[in-house]
């Protein structure tokens, strides 16, 4: 049996998980999850650049620049970055669980617990 089909299956399932989480996170817009943009902006204004992961602030600058091209404000750009990172990490968790030979139900359950 080829190992190529299961990898494609896992990739497709992870993509579905990513899209599902993306829709969930973007549509719910829960302030206690995605309201951190205001605090991040305050930290940056006060010179506190060491709180988040080293790649977060450069990514935030890229999203700010690209978001302004599409009419998004700084806060909305940071919210979009948070949504994409949250959905991406959930999809990676699902894929890792599936690659570790967990069943779909177990991997999905872990992803749902992580997502909430």
By helix and strand content, what is the structural category?
Answer: mainly alpha
What is the strand content? under 5%
Instruction: State the separation between the terminal residues, measured CA to CA.
Output: 37 Å
Query: What count of helical segments does DSSP give?
Result: 6
By DSSP, the count of extended strands is 0
Major beta-sheet overview: none
The run of helices and strands is: HHHHHH
Radius of gyration: 17 Å
Shape: elongated
Average pLDDT: 81
Fraction of residues in H or I helices: over 70%
Provide a brief overview of the structure.
By secondary structure, the chain is mainly α. The chain contains six helices and no strands. It is elongated and about 45 Å long.
Architecture blueprint of SSEs:
Blueprint (H helix, E strand, L loop, with lengths): L3 H25 L2 H4 L1 H10 L10 H14 L4 H26 L4 H12 L1
Helix pairs in contact: 1-5, 3-5, 4-5, 5-6
Task: Explain what this protein looks like in three dimensions.
The chain contains six helices and no strands. With 116 residues, it is mainly alpha-helical. α1 packs antiparallel against α5, α3 packs across α5 and α4 crosses α5. 19% of the residues are buried.
């Amino acid at each position: 049996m080829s190992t190529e089909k299961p990898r494609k299956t896992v990739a497709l399932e992870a993509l579905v998980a990513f899209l599902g989480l993306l829709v969930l996170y973007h549509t719910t817009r829960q302030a206690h999850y995605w309201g951190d943009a205001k605090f991040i902006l305050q930290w940056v204004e006060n010179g506190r650049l060491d709180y988040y992961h080293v790649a977060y602030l450069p990514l935030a600058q890229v999203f700010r620049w690209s978001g302004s091209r599409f009419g998004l404000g700084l806060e909305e750009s940071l919210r979009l970055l948070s949504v994409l990172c949250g959905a991406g990490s959930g999809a990676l968790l699902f894929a890792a669980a599936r690659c570790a030979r967990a069943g779909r139900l177990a991997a999905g359950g872990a992803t749902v617990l992580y997502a909430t």
